[in-house]
Amino acid sequence: MQSPRRAETIAHVRVIQQSWQQGKLQGEVQAGDYQWQFQWRFRQGQLVVQPSLGRALILEPLSRFLERYDYQLEAGGDYEFTVRAKL
Fold it and tell me: Is this structure's pTM higher than 0.90?
């Protein structure tokens, strides 16, 4: 018996600005029909995502992505990760 395929969506991340001195990273993320702006203050562990529409869907996966790849992310860079949901 074959198990049903899990729903997945590719999230596209663009880093707009980063400042190691200020301890923050800003960018945008797009997944499915949604698009958000984010600011990650990595020294405080604070991630702010706007607008609020659909934010609950992306907050945790984006946070995991940023924490995992933080030192590899550069301003002007485009990245992607998989969200285990259909957005």
Answer: no
Asked, for residue 85, whether it belongs to a domain, the answer is no
Partnered with residue 84 across adjacent β-strands are none
Beta strands 9-19 and 24-31: pairing type? antiparallel
Tell whether 47 is covered by a domain.
Answer: yes
Predicted confidence at residue 53, as pLDDT, reads: 93
State pLDDT tens for residues 20-57.
899 999 999 999 999 999 999 999 999 999 999 999 99
What is the count of structural domains for the chain? 1
CA–CA dist 85, 87 (Å, integer): 6
Token pair recorded at residue 57: 């869907």
The parent domain of residue 57 ranges over 9-80
Which amino acid, residue 31?
A
Instruction: Measure the CA–CA gap between 1 and 80, rounded to whole angstroms.
Output: 32
